Amino acid sequence: MNGMMKAAVFEKPETMVIREIPIPECEPDGVLIKVEACGICGGDVRNFYQGLRADVGSQIMGHEIVGTVVEAGPDAKDFAVGDRVALAPDVSCGECVYCKRGWVNLCAEHKMLGTHFPGGFAQYIAISGYIIEHGFIEHIPDTLSFDDAVMAEPASSVIACQNRNNVQPGDTVVIIGDGPIGCIHIEVARAKGAAKIIMVGLTRLEQAKEFHPDVLLDSAAVNPVEEVLKLTDGVGADIIICANPVTSTQEQAVEMAKKRGIIVLFGGVPKSNPMTSLNSNLIHYNELTVTGAFSYPSCGLRDALSYLNEKKITASKYTNVIVPLDKICDGIMLSKQGKALKAVVKPWME
Question: Residue 64 class from Cβ within 10 Å (0-12 exposed, 13-18 middle, 19+ buried)?
């Protein structure tokens, strides 16, 4: 497809410029996608202020993408013009020791749309056959709107985390962190039958109320450990998910866990201060499991689309800020300030 398109091009920290650039070419084994919407991720916010990883300079960011295939190469597999699709960022190599075991999210040569490849803060994105094979592109169910499907990528890691840690009916689940990811954890835990869902929040408590945790604790007003122990008759929670970038909450999580409980370090912490201090006696004597959770397996995006299509996750509760491309910096700033639970860019919006 010939012609020009609008794109938000990251040039350096705190500088993103709207440019008219050529529509990317559709490769013989690839597809060209008209971007209908692209969510602004917490990682996008961090990268906007700190710079892209892997020493990447100028780039089109954005990786929570939904759109329509408008061109398909003659050798493209599985996708055709008119298909409605969702994309996620990770592109694995398929050859490393981790990929060979099916752990594509842990790929040693892991690359991402929006960092190593142009992303979705543009009117079009070209996806090569290599990315189709090694990355994430899924058909959106006919009954699911683009506005709802744009939540699939952030939901993917949440669902994968709770699947791997076997959240099940009867569990008491504590979620620490009241951002959009923490709220998705509420909905997924409920879908899995958790008996009691406790949210520990700080800055977005009013927004978190909309997702109806059984108990909402303000960590500035109460001691979360004491409150969780009271709410569980001194036994503690089955699983505690630290969905925020604060190491002190990881320490609290160990203190509020049931014997043989699971503590999930879901949110990455600042690289400048990644060390934490956990009570090893509690881990030892209570046979606790402390584990990490990062990204999702090859079925992750498909699983999330199913959850959204079945209304287990109510996408409309998250996307409370929608901006056109030329207002993308406003969306990033509102996300950073916590005023946007989830900001979405619509590249064709005036």
Answer: buried
Q: pLDDT tens for residues 302-342?
A: 999 999 999 999 999 999 999 999 999 999 999 999 889 99
CA pair distance 330, 129, nearest whole angstrom: 34
pLDDT band, very low/low/confident/very high, at 272 (cuts 50, 70, 90): confident
Query: Pick from 85, 261, 91, 108: which is nearest to 172 by CA?
Result: 261
Class of the domain covering 4-154+296-346: alpha beta
How much is the pTM? 0.96
Residue 289 has pLDDT above 80, yes or no: yes
3 state SS of 17? strand
Residue 31 scores a pLDDT above 90: yes
Q: Are strands 31-39 and 124-127 parallel, antiparallel or unpaired?
A: antiparallel
How many angstroms from the chain centroid is the CA of residue 243? 11
Q: How far is it, in rounded angstroms, from Cα 202 to Cα 138?
A: 35
Cα torsion 23, 28, 34, 40: sign: negative
Domain 166-292 belongs to what architecture? 3-Layer(aba) Sandwich (3.40)
Residues 197-204: contacts with CB within 8 Å, 24+ apart?
Answer: 197/173, 198/172, 198/173, 198/174, 198/228, 198/231, 198/237, 199/174, 199/175, 200/174, 200/175, 200/176, 200/224, 200/228, 200/249, 201/177, 202/178, 203/178, 203/338, 204/178, 204/179, 204/338, 204/341
Q: Where are the domains positioned within the chain? A: 4-154+296-346, 166-292
- 3-class DSSP state for residue 337? helix
Does the structure show a pLDDT above 90 at 271?
Answer: no
Per the rule left: phi > 0, alpha: psi between -120 and 50, beta: everything else, 5 is: beta
Tell me the pLDDT of the chain averaged across its residues.
96
